[in-house]
Write a structure and sequence with these properties.
The complex is a heterodimer of chains A (114) and B (111). Chain A has no helices and 12 strands. Chain A is globular. In chain A, the strands form 3 sheets. In chain A, strands 2, 5, 6, 10, 11 and 12 form a 6-stranded mixed β-sheet that branches. A 4-stranded antiparallel β-sheet of chain A has the order 3-9-8-7, with no helix packed on it. Chain A has a two-stranded antiparallel sheet with strand order 1-4. Chain A is mostly beta strands. Chain B is mainly β. Helix content of chain B is 0%, strand content 51%. In chain B, strands 2, 4, 5, 6, 9, 10 and 11 form a 7-stranded mixed β-sheet that branches. In chain B, strands 1-3-8-7 form a 4-stranded antiparallel β-sheet, with no helix packed on it. In chain B, a hairpin with a 2-residue loop joins strand 5 and strand 6. The termini of chain B are far apart. The chains are: A mainly beta (114), B mainly beta (111).
């Protein structure tokens, strides 16, 4: 079955500390991979995506993610967290062809301590 | 460039009623997808429309239906509302780049 797992439901970090959010997926072939961020009461904003090529991808707001095929993982990282990064983060996969539907993980809620 | 817009922002209905949610896709996008996000969960795919035809459906009953118009805007209709239909409904538009651009969502509460 196709699925996305985000093992950490909540993460708390201090402002200025580094951050890593985990994402593992189960899929028949290598899917397209995404990270989205959702602030309270808001829609989803795309942080970054991986389709092919360089396995380390850069996104907006200083985020990056690394695709590891052998581990079926696509972890999100940021070297120094800002208070404004507090939000919910969703990892998602989509097929590279056919009906374009996302499968989302259950999300990781990030809290940032001042 | 205008982003994806959705209306209304919030909606309160009672069980058994019907509701219509609306989405205007981003300029140049011919594909619209709808997602249901229950509280504390990730979004779940409802269905997708491409050039006015349904192009894939998730595990939702037939009382969830939709339309896409020639200008690529879309509607989501839900009949015979149930309490479990309470959720944030998200619309996403995309084109050949297969990157979903999400709207702010419609918060539906069923009493």
């Amino acid at each position: 079955a196709q699925s996305v797992t985000q093992p950490d439901i909540h993460i708390t970090v201090s402002e200025g500390a580094s951050l890593e959010l985990r994402c593992n997926y189960s899929y028949g072939a290598t899917p397209y991979l995404f990270w989205y961020v959702q602030s309270p009461g808001q829609g989803l904003q795309l942080l970054l995506k991986y389709f092919s090529g360089d396995t380390l991808v850069q996104g907006i707001k200083g985020f990056e993610a690394e695709f590891k095929r052998s581990q079926s993982s696509f972890n999100l990282r940021k070297p120094s967290v800002h208070w404004s990064d507090a939000a919910e983060y969703f990892c998602a996969v989509a097929p590279p062809s056919g009906t374009y539907k996302y499968i989302f993980g259950t999300g990781t809620r990030l809290k940032v301590l001042a | 460039e205008t982003g994806v817009t959705q209306s209304p922002t919030h909606l309160i209905k009672t069980r058994g009623q019907q509701v219509t949610l609306r989405c205007s896709s981003q300029s140049g996008h011919n594909t619209v997808s709808w997602y249901q996000q229950a509280l504390g969960q990730g979004p779940q795919f409802i269905f997708q429309y491409y050039r006015e035809e349904e192009n894939g459906r998730g595990n939702f009953p037939p009382r969830f239906s939709g339309l896409q118009f020639p200008n690529y805007s879309s509607e989501l209709n839900v009949n015979a509302l149930e309490l479990d239909d309470s959720a944030l409904y998200l619309c996403a538009s995309s084109n050949s780049d297969r990157e979903g651009h999400f709207g702010p969502g419609t918060r539906l509460t069923v009493l």
